Amino acid sequence: MVVYELSESEIDRIFQAMADATRRDIIKQAMLREQSVSELARRYAMSFAAVQKHVAVLERASLVIKQRRGREQIVQANPESLRRAARLLEAYEDIWRERANLIGEILSNQPEGTEP
């Protein structure tokens, strides 16, 4: 049984945010160290505004936290949200493994001379 720690809308926001390669890279960069949006924007061949929009999507999904420090907006990863998403995927994996084990048991219990 999958125990949801996240609401359906939270799950949707997290996986929609992570569906984009740039956003996944921003998460990775923010996990390595907190960075300003300006620093992040220098890494990508897109406008500052486009990077800001990616950060906003990640922030809405609670995958990053953005704080204002003086004139800069500092982005840091939110590992708890990532852990919650990982636990959800692990729960789905458990279901899949259980089903695979049941199929294995059924196949191993086939009488000799019969085909599954």
Automatic annotation (TrEMBL):
<dbReference type="InterPro" id="IPR011991">
    <property type="entry name" value="ArsR-like_HTH"/>
</dbReference>
<keyword id="KW-0238">DNA-binding</keyword>
<dbReference type="InterPro" id="IPR036390">
    <property type="entry name" value="WH_DNA-bd_sf"/>
</dbReference>
<dbReference type="GO" id="GO:0003677">
    <property type="term" value="F:DNA binding"/>
</dbReference>
<dbReference type="InterPro" id="IPR001845">
    <property type="entry name" value="HTH_ArsR_DNA-bd_dom"/>
</dbReference>
<feature type="domain" description="HTH arsR-type">
    <location>
        <begin position="3"/>
        <end position="97"/>
    </location>
</feature>
<dbReference type="InterPro" id="IPR036388">
    <property type="entry name" value="WH-like_DNA-bd_sf"/>
</dbReference>
<protein>
    <submittedName>
        <fullName>DNA-binding transcriptional ArsR family regulator</fullName>
    </submittedName>
</protein>
